[in-house]
Amino acid sequence: MIGRRLWDRCIHHRGLETHQFIADYFGKRSSRALLIAGLGFDPRSTTVIESLSTKMGDRLTSVLIREDRPDPASELLRRASLNRDRISMLAPGFNEAGIDVFASDGAVVGGRNAALAISALDLDGYDDVIVDFSALSVGISFPIARWLYERAKDINPPLNVHLMVIDEPSTDEQVFATICDIVDAIHGFKGGLGLFDNANAARLWLPQLTKGRNTVLGRIHTRISPHDVCPILPFPSTHPRLVDELIESYSSEIESVWGVDTRNIVYADENKPLDLYRTILRIDDARRPVFQETGGSMIVLSPVGSKVLAIGALMAALERGFPVVNVEAIGYQVDFEKLDFERTACGDVVHIWLYGDVYPKNAESEAPEP
Fold this sequence. Notes:
By secondary structure, the protein is an alpha/beta fold.
């Protein structure tokens, strides 16, 4: 029998509801909050900090993560500087933390460095901590969220952990990554991948499909050699024909390389991280009894597209210990002229209350074992 899931009754908001929540919860209390966000070229860098600082003033402390990669393009640096100047006006007392994504020998160390930087923070005196995913890569945001989630469970009274992100799939699609050669699990999300005990496990790969990531997903597929693949497609989505375009773009992979049965394609609402979270857990629940006598089942996640859906994958991985495999970006290329033209307005702010005093203290024990 499947037990109650951790976030069956998740507190979440979107759009105007999020702004009302910020006004009511953060604006009308005397509590202190810590915001951890990205500081870079991404145009979404300033939205969440502006909303929070307007309501909280000096009760908000901000730590902004600068992801340092080798030889960034001059336009990326210029855009990052503009965002920094704007944030300086919104929240003058912010703290800046530079994170080296790569070591001198080319090893991917960003996730580990990010977790170490966050672990050095003094959380005493804070009632809430917010992680803004909008301008952070998954290789950095996932380890930060995991460390805070695990740490919050050891704090009494509970530390409330919130996740926020600006929902702009079109912006994600305009940021093209130059990827490195290393394919590996994100720090803190190795799960049972590579362990001898799981050598006979039936590996199911759930890659999140998005435009222009064929090479990335091809490398991940080669690395993990899954027995089955269930691609995740955003539906419903903002663009009505997006699913058709993605299927056409990945037709070679779906039909020939991955050998996907069309009945195994996973559809998740592009706007709802909880939809993907619940879908992944349903798939896991269905597979466990089937493979328990033949080595077990292992689900591997690769959230390389929309950051809203990435949060759904994060929640599933936190609950069940799924491996999350990624290819880190050495650098980025952005068509800013097209991005500036198409980005006429900021997208909705999505809020997930990940952990805290709104949830039963025994929720962890009631959830099924991973």
